[in-house]
Amino acid sequence: MAVSSLGTYNNVYEGVSVMQKKDAETSGQKRAGDVHRTSGIIMEKTEKTKETDNEEYLRSLQKQVPYTKLEIGSALSMKKDKRAGVITVNPKLLEKMQKDPEAAAQYTQKLKDIERAERTANAYYNSLGGVVERTSHWYVDEEGNHYHFAYTRRDDRLNKKIREETKKNTEKHIEKTRKNAREKAEKLEEQLEKKAEGAKEKEKNQETKTKEIESPEPWEEVQQLIDTIMIDEGFDLKI
Known about the structure:
Elements (H helix, E strand, L loop, with lengths): L1 H61 L6 E4 L11 E6 L1 H9 L1 H28 L2 E10 L5 E9 L5 H55 L2 H16 L7
Parallel strand pairs: 1-2, 2-3
Antiparallel strand pairs: 3-4
């Protein structure tokens, strides 16, 4: 009986020990799990804090480039979503700009340059007319390099009437120009004819005067008669 009791006691003791060991392991796993989950919560809060800071900083940048739409992202969007002037900024670049004033000034200026380029492109397509779909996405990576994707679709049928009117106006302008040119040519020809007639009349009058000067026959006869009389009277003529 004593041996049997001892064996029973030992079995009970071993059973209790095994249960305590399992409880300890289970408790340890729970504690380890608790620590892991707590660590995850801390990391999650840190990431959310950074994200919140970036969003607030992005809103401040947005005021400086109001013509565009700033977003946070890590890649260039190439979707034809009819959104134009969208600039995606890498979150690491936003963090760098918040820590470094020089970087902030440099990359803020880059955003302004992109905005100016987008304005110019938009004005160009507006002048063309007929644009029914336009997408323009920009991306600035963590090093400050920028990339661009654009897609534009135009419908020329919308401009058909304008082109026809322009063609008619152009033809009218050409015809008017030709008419004015013909009238000017005719007037110039008339002026040239009048000048030619005047020149001929002037030349004719000049020839008549020259003949009158070169043919003084009556005067020569009178002079010869005077010379003869003077010789007869004994005058010495000196030429």
